[in-house]
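Task: sequence design from structure.
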């Protein structure tokens, strides 16, 4: 009697059996090693860190009604100055900075709109060394410079809902300086967008169109009048609306943007307002534009 023929050659069968044995052994090993690996790789919090977390939670829970109206970062700075912060977190730091007079820039959130808070404005102005930077009447925010030691005094006022640290706005990290005395030279954007072809084909140049820009500043660096005389800005000039230009410290990114717009749409009337005084002022300037 002839032997029954197998479906697979003997060599392949051996390989298959060996492969099954290898896979089975691997699965058994993984069953015992994975739990230990998971346990060893799980993050652990040191007793010192746990003690610091508990100290911070206790500090937050102990705040009184006035302190709960103050930004945590300001409270940290205030208590650090007084040496009153918990010794269990000795390296705790805030991002609060003061000017030469020991004042910090804050945003005071009021319960009522500023237009209905004349008494509050006068009270804040009367506090020593306080300087109100911006207080749009239609909104409920006051931007001010306040001595760090007197933040609690302001937070205690009835019509004050919260005192927050001011977040400084910023421009693009790429330095974009306005062009000066470059005559009628057009930007690369005008060429890239083939705007000249569109103006010629449709016989339009933006006349009758009004375009507004919000950025840091328009003429903090000087040179705006030179741009007007050289044709890099409209002959009629740029109209400032709302709170107008930033008082100082800007990089005139706004003017650089206006120059690019003027290249693309030379007949348009251009407007500018700063967005760097405060969030509330920026919102007010958007409405003005």
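Answer:
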């Amino acid at each position: 009697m002839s032997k029954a023929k197998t479906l697979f050659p003997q060599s392949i069968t051996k390989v298959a059996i060996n492969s099954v044995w290898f896979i089975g052994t691997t699965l058994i090993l993984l069953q015992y090693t994975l739990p230990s690996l998971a346990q060893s790789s799980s993050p652990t919090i040191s007793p010192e860190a746990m003690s610091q977390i508990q100290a911070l939670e206790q500090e937050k829970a102990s705040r009184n009604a006035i302190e709960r109206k103050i930004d945590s970062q300001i409270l940290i700075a205030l208590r650090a100055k007084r040496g009153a912060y918990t010794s269990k977190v000795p390296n705790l730091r805030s991002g609060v900075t003061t000017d030469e007079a020991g004042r910090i820039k804050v945003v005071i959130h009021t319960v009522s709109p500023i237009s209905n808070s004349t008494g509050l404005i006068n009270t804040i102005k009367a506090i020593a060394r306080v300087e109100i930077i911006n207080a749009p009447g239609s909104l409920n925010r006051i931007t001010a410079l306040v001595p760090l030691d007197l933040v609690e005094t302001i937070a205690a006022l009835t019509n004050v809902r919260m005192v927050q640290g001011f977040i400084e706005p910023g421009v693009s990290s790429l330095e974009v300086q306005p062009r000066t005395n470059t005559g009628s030279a057009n930007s690369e954007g005008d060429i890239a967008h083939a705007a000249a072809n569109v103006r010629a084909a449709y016989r339009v140049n933006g006349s009758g169109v009004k375009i507004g820009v919000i950025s840091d500043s328009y003429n903090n660096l000087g040179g705006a009048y030179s741009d007007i005389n050289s044709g890099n800005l409209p002959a009629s000039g740029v109209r400032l609306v709302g709170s107008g230009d930033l008082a100082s410290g800007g990089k005139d990114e706004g003017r650089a943007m206006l120059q690019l717009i003027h290249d693309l749409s030379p007949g348009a009337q251009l407007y500018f307002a700063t967005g760097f005084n405060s969030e509330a002022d920026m919102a007010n300037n958007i409405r003005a534009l």
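Residues 1-8, 11-15, 178-183 have pLDDT under 50 and may be disordered.
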